[in-house]
Amino acid sequence: MIKAITIHTSEIDDPEAAVAGLCALLEKEGPLLAHSIGLVSCFADFISSGIVADLAKKLPFEIAGTTSLAGASKDAAGDVLLFLTVLTSDDVEFVAGLTDPMSAEDVLPIRAAWEKATMGRTEKPALMLSFASLLTNASGDFLVDAFSAVSGNVPNFGTLAVDHNADYHEARVIFNGASYPDRHAFILCYGKIKPMFIVGSLSEKRAFRDKGVVTASAGNQLQGVNGISVADYLSGLGLKKGPDGAIMGINAYPFILDYNDGTPPVTRVMFAITPEGYAVCGGNMPVGASLQVGMIDAEEVLSITGEAIKSALVIGQNNGSNNGMLIFSCVGRYFAQGFHPEAEMKEVQKAINGSLPFHLCYSGTELCPVYEKNGNTRNRSHNDSIVICMF
Questions:
Q1: Would you say 304 and 201 are in contact if contact means Cβ atoms under 8 Å apart?
Q2: What is the pLDDT of residues 158-199, one digit of tens each?
């Protein structure tokens, strides 16, 4: 069994006070059990102020995590905050790992880090928690597939780092006291742990009725739907073109993509339309997959979030996985709230209502297993989604 403890601080100007306050909160929530690990998310200034480095020196366990532009727990929500979740257990062991710098989709740093972290162990981890960089040329799909290959499909739940800047230039992966723009940190959980996974994506009720088939693609570049260019397909649905011929407001119209392999659909954002009429998307768009064009707005985000949290609470209660909740939500969902950016975080607090510890932060891409019809998990990357891991 895992016990989860989530604490936070808003003290960003005085490193000594911030660390002392966090350690006092942790001692109050303790005691720690035989094995412990820390998961951290924070506003980027907590790194530059030295608080993350000082905290890592004081804690009696390793930590891993990312920067984020906002986050929430049962008693805090907002942007300039640092959250620390401690997983502690007598029968679950934790091993932290870190890749070398990654500048491209190269499996070698991943394999080397995995082999180092698992050296001397014969059993497979029950769960992997991932903290990846947004600033490398390695997509969420590549990271999921590469780690699945080297690990033998260990369930992989995680996030790609973001920050409060428009270009995310301060987005960092945190590993112990250091931070990196180009590495992948991870935590392996060994032993008696039964994680449950929930994905909240766009509802087909809010999607265009037309269902298309991917007829041409190259990785994350969607080139053809139903035998025509993506731009022409979108125009046929009624989406308008601007003066330059590009589809207007594509960020608000993500695809609902069905791999047609028995797993639930995933959401894929569109970042841009090329001069050829192709769509640059937030993940691979394989030929033969089915798709619908959805719509994301503040109302849809809050509805999906409320349903996902309620479903997670029921599933966790029924399966004995209700000791804590780790939540990653896409930054697109944060921005969809407009002038009320804390609305989704408040919705999560309301739905959980203090019933268990939780840690929410915003994400550049969400990594979360989905369930096949036989109950097995398959690792996937997601866009515009909220993903939940129940411990």
A1: yes
A2: 999 999 998 899 999 999 999 999 999 999 999 988 899 999
